[in-house]
């Protein structure tokens, strides 16, 4: 089992500081959020008691993002979640949410694979650079939902001058839109 397959172990000390056991340094909730966005599973445990605190911290990360205006969960869904906690009967909400997100991840993955397989211009020069731009755009539009493949190319990767382009995750959305418009113009000329 590789390091990427097993959860990243984060230990919480009595001072409430969070310690990354792989890199031997302290991390913040924002760091943990970044690990998850990058597709990494995390496990947070209390050093003294050994209690698993992962759920508590993941909920705290979600609450912080929601409070900053990065709303993903509609109010109706939040109300339904509260109702599922308050109801006396066993709720089907957790199983429904888990199945829904698995279906979403699977559908997105298949869509990206099919887009690469059906690409009639797979031999076009510079395609690798355009695919990187498309992947960055999809990641930006989906908010970095975990489980998405980052490289869905069906062609062998070659080093090109375009590979020297900075692929920073915070790339400006306007630049991506401009690049997509240019790509669409090129594609329409090929028809």
UniProtKB/TrEMBL annotation:
This is Polyhydroxyalkanoate synthesis repressor PhaR. It comes from the Bacteria. InterPro entries: PHA_DNA-bd_N, PHA_reg_PhaR, PHB_accumulat. One of its GO terms (biological process) is regulation of DNA-templated transcription. Residues 9-69 form the PHA accumulation regulator DNA-binding N-terminal domain. Residues 148-170 are annotated as: Disordered. Residues 160-170 have a biased composition (Acidic residues). Residues 73-111 form the PHB accumulation regulatory domain. The lineage of its organism: Bacteria, Pseudomonadati, Pseudomonadota, Alphaproteobacteria, Rhodobacterales. It comes from Pseudosulfitobacter pseudonitzschiae.
């Amino acid at each position: 089992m590789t390091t990427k397959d097993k959860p990243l172990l984060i230990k919480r000390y009595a001072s409430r500081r969070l310690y990354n056991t792989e890199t031997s340094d302290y991390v913040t909730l924002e760091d943990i959020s970044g690990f998850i966005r990058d597709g990494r599973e995390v496990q947070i445990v209390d050093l003294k008691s050994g209690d698993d605190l992962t759920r508590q911290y993941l909920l705290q990360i979600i609450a912080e993002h929601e409070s900053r205006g990065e709303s993903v969960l509609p109010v109706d869904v939040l109300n339904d979640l509260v109702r599922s906690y308050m109801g006396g009967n066993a709720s089907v909400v957790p199983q429904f949410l888990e199945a829904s997100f698995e279906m979403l991840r699977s559908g997105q993955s298949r869509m990206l694979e099919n887009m690469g397989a059906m690409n009639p211009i797979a031999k076009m020069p510079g395609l690798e650079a355009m695919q990187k731009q498309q992947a960055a755009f999809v990641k930006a539009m989906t908010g970095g939902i975990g489980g998405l493949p980052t490289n869905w190319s069906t062609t062998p990767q070659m080093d090109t001058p375009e590979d020297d382009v900075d692929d920073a995750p915070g790339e400006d959305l306007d630049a991506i839109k401009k690049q997509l418009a240019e790509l669409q113009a090129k594609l329409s000329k090929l028809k």
